[in-house]
Amino acid sequence: MENKFKCVLLFCLFLDFNYAQSFDTTAYLKKYNERIKMSRIDDIYIPKNTEDAMKELLRLTDPDGRTKILSVPEDSIASKLHFSLGRWMLINWGFEEGSRISHYYKENGVSNFDDMLDLLIRSFYRTLAQKPIKEKELFDWYISKRKKEHDEKIKKSKVIKNLGPVKKHME
After folding, report:
1. Residue 44 DSSP symbol
2. How far from chain centre, in Å, is Cα 32?
3. What is the pLDDT of residue 28?
């Protein structure tokens, strides 16, 4: 009788845990779908794409700051500004919770937040340098970078080919 009670209790706890997780996922998705349509979050304008983000960054930055950015080579700019400008965009433009700019990048295959920020910083550098952004090439580069990293992890991982016969444990 005691074992049956324990089984029923465990089953009820499992159901409750599963329900709570599905509720959280549903609530998160609802909130995410609302946020990706918003042009302002917490009274901060959220750009809709890279071109719009460049206009907003130009509006928000001062000429001296822009000149400093151009003093760094393009290959170094993303890592140099990742934890300052990049962090500001991550928080204020709502990348982690979902926003129309982060959703735009996800729709174009760039799903890693760090890649989104680096792409924006590199695009801003090119805008300041009056060079073409070449957004499609940047998308392809970041997608390819993540695919290579994934393929390397798979290549290095060990696969268990045979677990042997499964023995039933009976009490």
Report:
1. E
2. 13
3. 87
